[in-house]
Structure prediction request, 291 residues.
Amino acid sequence: MRIRATVAAVTGALALSAFAVPVAQADDPSYRETAAAAFEAAHSGGAKAQRSAAVVGDLDASFSNFKIASVHKVGTTNQVSTKVTYKLTHGADVDLGSLDFATGPYIYKGSFDTPDNVIFGFEAATCVEASTTVANCTGYVDILPSEELLNSDAGTWKGGALLLDYVTGSYADQGDLATTKVLRNSRLTVNASPEPVKKGKTITVTGLLTRANWDTGKYAGYTAQSVKLQFKKKGASTYTDVKTVKSGTGSSAGKLKTTVTASVDGTYRYAFAGTSTTPAVNSAGDAVDVN
Prediction:
């Protein structure tokens, strides 16, 4: 599996079989590295063989009411941080006000037992105790596309949460708490020409549909996709579909081109409905004067 804090980096300082840190350092360690080490330990062969419930680990805790945005549009360079809230139910031996304990959300691609990729937040969640055994927690999952995503990661992910005891090395880990989509961000342009144009003459509408390529760190043309050309008459508030255009392939990857007959003043745009890996996007409008 791939984890935000790579196993090689983590294991240099934190043994997977004993990720605990000294009490004197309990307020110092990097949360994400500790969480990654704990997660790796929880999903090792031995730990999986001992599973008998939805919650893995030896801490008395469970997670519920996990809420996360339904879609995350991730480009090639900018960090995407998404807020997560959840309820943590824990035993009397867990003191969330102590530096010995930390909890946080994460998302994973694939199965809970053997995920393809896992992403944590940089910091632990903050929690407000609702009772002696229930806390409402808020944390973040921080996605860095250039470091942790491949194109194959685009699609549906699931949410999970961890509770860690830094001193004893105990933990509670629970997955399948929610679903979310991590998608390759899309871009779409339009240009209608000539401007102005005489009534009855031909207007050529070009454009370009691209999406983030996480393997190369660049945007590239999204080929062979159906994109609608839409028109909004001057003074109107909504667009209507004119025709469907297929984005180009090969050396014309992602390019759009079609023609229409000039009739009245108005604005053209392209609209892409999205796919399972790429979000929907509309271009800006390009106004054309017809005389």
